[in-house]
Amino acid sequence: MEKFSTHTGVAAPLKQSNVDTDQIIPAVFLKRITKTGFEDALFAGWRKNPDFVLNRPEYENASVLVAGSDFGTGSSREHAVWALRDYGFKAVISSRFADIFRGNSGKQGLLAAQVEQSDVELLWKLMEEQPGIEVRVDLESRTVTCGPVTVPFQIDDYTRWRLMEGLDDIGLTLQQEEDIEAYERTRPAFKPTTLPART
Amino acid sequence: MTTTAVTTPPRTLAEKVWNDHLVRQGEAGRPDLIYIDLHLLHEVTSPQAFEGLRLAGRGLRRTDLTIATEDHNTPTENIFSTIADETSRKQIETLRRNCEEFGVRLHSLGDSEQGIVHVVGPQLGLTQPGMTVVCGDSHTSTHGAFGALAFGIGTSEVEHVMATQTLSLAPFKTMAINVEGTLKPGVSSKDIILAVIAKIGTGGGQGHVLEYRGSAIRSLSMEARMTICNMSIEAGARAGMIAPDETTMDYVQGRPHAPQGEDWDAAVEYWRTLHTDEGAAFDREVFIDADELEPFVTWGTNPGQGVPLSQPVPDPEEVGDDNAKDAARRALEYMGLEAGTPMKEIPVDTVFLGSCTNSRIEDLRAAAEIVKGRRKAENVRMMVVPGSARVRLQAEAEGLDRVFREFGADWRFAGCSMCLGMNPDQLAPGERCASTSNRNFEGRQGKGGRTHLVSPVVAAATAVRGTLSAPSDLEPAGAAAPVPSGLQPMA
Known about the structure:
heterodimer; A: alpha/beta; 7-stranded mixed sheet; 18% strand; B: alpha/beta; 5-stranded parallel sheet; 15 helices; disordered C terminus
């Protein structure tokens, strides 16, 4: 995973709440067995509409999405994060993220920055006044800067540290293999196993 | 009074299960490392995880705590022919190859244990109280009905569990959902959970484990409890749980992977400790009066946009804050509905009985009871998709397939089917569906499709009348064609 410290790029407003992962990437694109190449699938249902925000020329190179509350609800599909990443997004800003989506983002180097709803609306206002305006997302100071305005965002310390270091979660856990083995020795005998198979 | 020195403070059910799976407690803001007892796999969210293991030269740590099935994109017709869709076929073949390479038990299409992953686990007795259960599927919360801590994960975490049998997680908050009272006839556990989601909203449970409690929950069967826990994710919750009781033990006992002999006794002794202690504090509490509940139905494009079936489509101008108003306006436009229209006057094109929410034998029995001896409304198509091959066989042994067929419904093979429209079972653009599934998102059941979430008995009554209906709206079966006086019906 690439290290993340700051990112500056064009912000696109997605002025809707409850953007679920079925909207971010419809199920039909989930048949692929690869982990890349999902850029065409991002918001596939909405992109056919010429008025959809990402179809407007001023947002052509958008890399920060500023969305309504409850972004990424529904299905656990990590494909939603892959699609945002493959399209070119580095960060999503919202006042509330669904838990699984936020977790998936942290694993893939996509920053899910949680800001107050009033700050989302302030950012939308600035973006409306100056379509295509750039924002700077600073993970070090946990702030988003847009023109004259700087607002704070929340992210848990651990995810922030992992993003800044670009660390692989599995590698970190495997450093604790002795603890895992010790735990396994204490597991009760009555816990089920899938093998040998009984039907 | 006991004289045992009690040093542990009172704990909730979720905290007990969490603590019993601590491999290592996180220090200095680090997450805890939690052991996973059961990892369920399916074709859609696993291929990239297996590939990740291969690329890193890692093995799958505990094949004996892992099981796979094919469900999301599998066809529900002609299952013994080659899958027509090439990408679907490739995904299924990839799962088969991966399971073989890594030594994972797989129940493939055509196997009598194949089915929706959340139906298969409990059915085999692999889901038991006090376990941690994960799957790359958000409806893993289903297994919480047993008092297990069960939650959906993304593909990176699937790979993490494959490699380490653990997950790094920050502790969840807890929320009690107290449901007291007695459900009226025709009201089911689906109506309870739809009412809960309408009350707390799609983000209301964010970061929390919901524990469903109270007399109305205690009186539910295991299958009805699974329906409730299944949709915890639609309230934004990490998981849903119900403390195990006699109903739970009776369900588990005798299943293929249930503990036996001394193991059974030891397990039961442990399971009896799995309840929220007197005096334990939840971060939040919600109260629902079961006596007041009616059959529920959604009108919008998220599961929180629901009303009792007897009510009209709400007016967006009277819904919540500006964001909610916006969302409601958008939803009505997508759904093609006018504010003020009585829900019961909305005609549907399709009725879908299935999904990990409502495809178990009790769901099929309840729906069959309604449609028995009737004919479906002319312009409606009804599709019945059992949750697993076992459920299908059981239903056929009971003659339910015949009841559905005589009613005019399609009787299919097991899988996720039209719940998410990955296979050919989809809505056409503009088509309206009464569905026993869990999500009414835009395009969820097919591009442009319009979904109303309902219980199995409401789905059945709707198929009879052709408009959204409760069982109590139906004339007695056969009333439309009374036996002429003086004639006896044929024996």
